[in-house]
Amino acid sequence: MAKLLQLQTFLSEKGSLTVFEKILENGIKRIFYIYNAENQIRGGHRHKLAYNALTCVNGTCKVYIHDGVEEQTFELDSPEKCLLLEPKDWHSMYDFSENAVLLVLSDRFYEKEDYIYEKYETLVNS
């Protein structure tokens, strides 16, 4: 299941510095960011192999996760928060604030074959 991490941050009178170190076990192969996404739903997939780390470096967004067993929603509302996704985590990002910038780090280069778009069955509460 996805894990919410607190990134190491250094504060001083000169500003804040937040560090991505040793977040992805296999290193970082790809970096991209999502912006201008207000009123949009992004993601909508899981992976066969890729691990991803998400942080909202500006603004806020929510991330829905379903790993086939559990469902969770996380709010990324600080550049110090990092959501680590396993390949099995079907995810969608939504409720982007105005000027939100969602930074994504991946341990794999883009490969179309790595994406799985079919959702898990939704859990039914008894």
Please count the beta strands (DSSP E, at least 2 residues each). 12
Q: Please give the radius of gyration in angstroms.
A: 15 Å
From the 3D coordinates, which CATH architecture would you assign?
Sandwich
The portion of residues assigned to helices is: under 10%
Return the average pLDDT rounded to an integer.
95
Largest sheet: spatial strand order: 1-9-6-11-4
- What CATH calls the topology is Jelly Rolls
In CATH's first tier, which class applies?
Mainly Beta
What structural category arises from helix and sheet content?
mainly beta
| Order of helical and strand elements | EEEEEEEEEEEE
Please mark out the parts with pLDDT under 50 across 5 or more consecutive residues, or reply none: none
Largest sheet: 5 strands, antiparallel
Number of helices: 0
Percent strand = over 45%
- The CATH homologous superfamily is named Jelly Rolls
Domain unit count: 1
How many angstroms does the end-to-end distance come to? Answer: 22 Å
Provide a descriptive summary of the structure in words:
With 126 residues, this protein is mainly beta. It has a single domain, classed as Jelly Rolls (Sandwich), CATH 2.60.120. It is 0% helix and 50% strand. The protein is built from no helices and 12 strands. This is TDP-4-oxo-6-deoxy-alpha-D-glucose-3, 4-oxoisomerase.
